[in-house]
Specification:
- The protein contains 22 helices and 9 strands.
- By secondary structure, the chain is an alpha/beta fold.
- Among the domains are: 175 residues, no CATH class; 217 residues, Rossmann fold (3-Layer(aba) Sandwich), CATH 3.40.50.1820.
- It is elongated, with a radius of gyration of 31 Å.
Length: 596
């Protein structure tokens, strides 16, 4: 029964490695009496590696079956910590054996490469080389020469085939069948360990040893749920083929007739303040995008490495390096003096945002620039895209603000509760506490004694100035939520979000359209990326695949390859804000949307 559950690739790998052991053993027995140990080492090493690879496949099969049995037997709700720990332990055991098999595959590939090199060298010398094994075989009976040729051929085949066959011995579908919960649990473990190892490679070792539920676990849960289409019998290549079919049959989206054009003045202001949002990327990411070949030099130049004597004149930002390089990079990009940068944070933890606060006296404006995704912590904030309920404090600028029309406020109260992207909401709450979150005397004019109040309050340095909050991508979404909370305190406020992630429900997005402007460039995907849009896209791709009568295995591979390698494949991004226009208000695609 277990033979039916084997993958065809596993059967090929197993038989090939067994042949390699047999052929290698015959060659060693034939040539060992005449040749030294050094001469026959490679012919002993390759069969030994194949034997170890067979043993590893046996252990992988046992570990894979134990993993699948554990996942199928455990409840879907991860409420029991001991059961969840057991599932992770069995998965790690299977993962360890697959990594060991991968290491043996690398050794077999190196052995095959050396064998080919040795064979080519022998032929290039006109069979006069001092290679004892090849000389003995070529001068012996014909069957020995055939054995040598077969050994070299099988060794090369095994080395190449194993690179594409994968390490799984059994078909996962033979265990999970169409159990949706089992597939979700399986891919949760896959993504959980994959993300933790990736974070470890980026220097975040603490995530590798964490076993409790944390941000990585939440992101892995979401990604695992998105791959639930495997329960219907659909493979990854088939999904890609469905996307290609959807792209082939889709038409370019056209702007709705009732879409309003944003005022030219709004466009001009958005273009003016864009540099502040772009400058917030003070790491090497911005320089890599602009100068992919010399970006280390460009980044070090922006960090002020050539002007260390000006270090003391730069403001000290939270998390900045000894040289205060991030402050120097920001100021250099926007071409402002050091005294213009008043506050900031560049090295933040998870669910926190990096930001910069600058004062522009020549235009009577205070600018808060929120950085987008640049660090692993930002990626975790992006991935925490489950919905969360917005509190009254989060919507303070809309619900308790006389500048908002009474009808809009009544509508917001009647349609509550309202929801948002959980990672972005928590980052916006933290940022609010950083810039203006300290409650002061209730009888004071501003109601707070935070940093912004010390700048914009009555009689302060920037009394009467405008407040502008800008950000790109993740930073634009956080800036929008921060602006909603601050709008009640600072009515002379406007938010410019560039390529912002979807982060609010439609009612809130529509209510804040007067003071939040979102700019979406052409088919920029980030403004359309959300859980619900991915689910709709996945459903449309599977529907397109099921409705195509000509779909077969060859077409699936062809369409999947086309989707992966074609450059101009943005036709399926037809939801959300129109691709050819920018508009005022938060980006939303209808219904409830959450981005990540």
């Amino acid at each position: 029964m277990w033979i039916k559950n084997l993958r065809y690739a596993s059967l090929v790998v197993g038989v090939s490695n067994f042949l390699l052991v047999v052929l290698g053993g015959v060659l060693v027995l034939v040539t060992a009496p005449r040749c030294g140990r050094a001469d026959v080492f490679i012919y002993l090493f390759i069969p030994a590696s194949a034997a170890v690879r067979l043993a590893a496949m046996y252990k992988i099969g046992i570990a894979q079956e134990a993993t699948a049995t554990t996942i199928v037997g455990l409840p879907a709700a991860d409420d029991d910590g001991l059961l969840r720990h057991k599932r992770r332990v069995t998965y790690k055991r299977w993962l360890w054996w697959t990594r060991f098999a991968l290491m043996m595959t690398v050794l077999q590939f190196l052995g095959a490469a050396y064998l080919i090199f040795d064979f080519v060298r022998y032929v290039s010398y006109g069979e006069t080389s001092r290679d004892c094994v090849l000389g003995t075989v070529s001068n012996s009976e014909q069957w020995k020469l055939h054995t040598m040729v077969s050994f070299v051929t099988v060794a090369c085949f095994v080395a190449l085939f194993q690179c594409f066959a994968g390490s799984d011995v059994y078909r996962w579908r033979s265990f999970y069948m169409t159990q949706d919960k089992a597939w979700k649990a399986h891919y949760r473990e896959v993504f959980d360990h994959g993300i933790r190892e990736a974070l470890c490679c980026l220097g975040r070792v603490k995530y590798l040893s964490a076993l409790d539920e944390d941000e990585v676990h939440s992101v892995a849960q979401l990604l695992g749920d998105l791959v639930a289409y495997r329960a219907s019998g659909t493979g990854h290549l088939e999904l890609l083929a469905g996307l290609a079919l959807l792209q082939r049959h889709s038409q370019t989206s056209r702007p709705p007739e009732d879409m309003l054009e944003a005022p030219e003045e709004r466009f001009a202001q958005a273009a003016t303040f864009h540099q502040f949002a772009e400058a917030a990327y003070t790491g090497p990411l911005l320089d890599f995008g602009r100068n992919p070949f010399i970006f280390p030099c460009a980044w070090l130049y922006r960090q002020g490495i050539l002007t260390p004597w000006s270090r003391n004149r730069r403001p000290m930002l939270q998390g900045d390096n000894w040289l205060r390089g991030h402050a120097a990079a920001y100021l250099k990009y926007v071409k402002l003096p050091a005294e213009a940068l008043r506050r900031g944070r560049v090295c933040q933890a998870k669910r926190e945002a990096a930001y910069f606060i600058v004062v522009l006296h020549h235009v009577n404006t205070v600018v808060i620039a929120v950085r987008g995704t640049e660090t692993p912590e930002d990626l975790l904030t992006d991935g925490l895209c489950r919905e969360c309920t917005l509190s009254e404090e989060d919507l303070e600028g809309l619900l308790n603000n006389d500048h908002i029309h009474p009808d809009i406020r009544r509508q917001l109260h009647s349609s509550s509760p309202h929801y948002g992207h959980s990672g972005i909401v928590e980052a916006a709450r933290d940022l609010f506490s950083q810039v203006d979150g300290n409650l002061g005397d209730p009888g004071s004019a501003t109601g707070s004694t935070g940093f912004l109040s010390s700048l914009l309050g009555p009689g302060c340095e920037c009394d009467g100035y405008k407040l502008c909050i800008v950000g790109h991508s993740l930073g634009g979404a956080i800036a929008s939520l921060l602006g909603i909370r601050l709008y009640g305190r600072y009515p002379n406020l406007h938010v410019y979000a560039y390529g912002s992630l979807p982060c609010l429900d439609f009612a809130i997005a529509d209510a804040c359209s007067d003071f939040i402007t979102t700019i979406v460039y052409d088919n920029e995907f980030s403004a359309r990326l959300s859980v619900s849009s991915i689910l709709r896209l996945r459903g449309a791709a599977l529907t397109a695949l099921s409705q195509d009568p000509k779909t077969d295995t060859a077409l699936v591979f062809k369409l999947a390859r086309r989707f992966l390698y074609v450059g101009n494949h943005l036709g399926y991004c037809t939801e959300g804000v129109d691709a050819s226009s920018s508009h005022s208000g938060a980006v939303i695609t209808g219904g409830l949307k959450f981005g990540f």
